[in-house]
Amino acid sequence: MKRLSVLGSTGSVGTQTLEVVAQNPDGFSVEALAAGRNIELLAEQIERFAPKCVAVADEAGANELRKRVKLDERGIALHTGDAGLEAVATHEPCDLVVAALVGAVGLAPTLAAVRAGRDIALANKEVMVMAGALVLREMKVHDVTLLPVDSEHSAIFQALSGQRPEDVSRIILTCSGGPFRGWEAERIESASVEEALDHPNWDMGAKITIDSASLMNKGLEVIEARWMFDVAPEQIDVVVHPQSIVHSLVEFRDTSVLAQLGLPDMRVPIAVALAHPERVALEIPRLDLADAGRLDFEAPDRETFPCLDLAYRALAGSEAAPAVLNAANEVSVAAFLAGEIPFGEIARTNAAVLDAHLAEKAGLVVDSLADILAADGWARAQARERLEASDGPKTGSVQGVA
Ligand code: MG
């Protein structure tokens, strides 16, 4: 029985993690859950999985949860805020922490889990994007195993199994191309929120779906792969594969290429991470290659989707630059989702903030969480300043058009 704590239990990966657990009740127990503001769903999860420790965003949520669940009677500890995330991340007993928060908020609790010696199933890619070098160092010190939940990184992890690092020549990340693949730049510039959220293959949270539309998600995954697999940025390539059947590939020095395939379903990489080094059965649709018929591949359009190359520029720039890029992107995506800016402004804001950082701080070395959070805070302020200085709501978003 593997004992799990889940950070972000009511989100997309969190709920699918609990589905995998529900399909394998003898394999896993749920010890601790951290949610944000979806108290109704958290209450259902508590009924179903009986954790001993839970966390919510704030006191209002805590009060609502107390009304719905008799926590004291059931011996369930309730925590709030950042301390709550840390309590769930370091809760004992626990064998594996599923880090499924979205964005920078997941960094501190995931680092706390690493320092507590917990193995990590990592869906929260911003942790590696913001602090890859630091997390890698801490993982070695605390003898922690990192299991990727991102579908591409899970594919690479599976393809690398049993291989020697020195035999790897290239990692090839596949990319669906998102909802705007093949669109003219002008049409993308004024795309609506609805259009950007309409991902052709994957059912994911709003933030990552927007990142998929801009290809920023693939850029963040390049950075994630650089640290997760400790490979040079030049060894990481991206190929567009619209069917999302081949989840990524590894090329070895003898030119042999190993790929991992499957239907696009996050429950598979989640199950791989949860069960490692074993595998568990999943009752979900299976890949039928004859039914799939064909698999297409093409080079990414780096001009129309400049966010991909911003990631390589950040990796080459400074140790803090990926955190800067990530923070600028969180602010610009939130502004787009709120109808405040056109889609095209996401990439322009991200580029402007990254360039401003590189102009001042090229070669900056990071050696603490505080350094990273300082870079993150600076970038958020820069991005907000830039967005506020522009002319307010633009046409092109759902709200803007209305
Ligand atoms: Mg992915």
What does this structure look like?
The structure is a single chain. This protein is α/β, with parallel strands linked by helices and 402 residues long. The chain folds into two domains: 2-148, NAD(P)-binding Rossmann-like Domain (Rossmann fold), CATH 3.40.50; 165-263 and 298-389, Rna Polymerase Sigma Factor, Chain: A, CATH 1.10.1740. It has 18 helices and eleven strands. The chain has helices spanning 12-23, 39-49, 59-68, 81-89, 107-115, 126-141, 151-160, 185-189, 193-196, 206-214, 216-228, 267-275, 289-292, 307-317, 321-337, 344-361, 369-389, 398-401; strands at residues 2-7, 28-34, 53-56, 77-80, 96-99, 119-122, 146-148, 168-175, 236-240, 246-252, 257-261. Strands 4-3-2-1-5-6-7 form a seven-stranded parallel beta sheet, sandwiched between helices. Strand 1 (2-7), helix 1 and strand 2 form a beta-alpha-beta unit. The chain starts with a strand and ends with a helix. 49% of the residues are buried. Residues 394-402 have low confidence and may be disordered. Bound molecules: magnesium ion (MG). Magnesium ion (MG) binds at residues 150-152, 221.
Describe how the helices and strands are arranged:
Elements: E1 2-7, H1 12-23, E2 28-34, H2 39-49, E3 53-56, H3 59-68, E4 77-80, H4 81-89, E5 96-99, H5 107-115, E6 119-122, H6 126-141, E7 146-148, H7 151-160, E8 168-175, H8 185-189, H9 193-196, H10 206-214, H11 216-228, E9 236-240, E10 246-252, E11 257-261, H12 267-275, H13 289-292, H14 307-317, H15 321-337, H16 344-361, H17 369-389, H18 398-401
Parallel strand pairs: 1-2, 1-5, 2-3, 3-4, 5-6, 6-7, 8-9
Antiparallel strand pairs: 8-10, 10-11
Helix pairs in contact: 1-12, 2-3, 4-5, 5-6, 6-11, 6-15, 10-15, 11-14, 14-15, 14-16, 15-16, 15-17, 16-17
The structure holds magnesium ion.
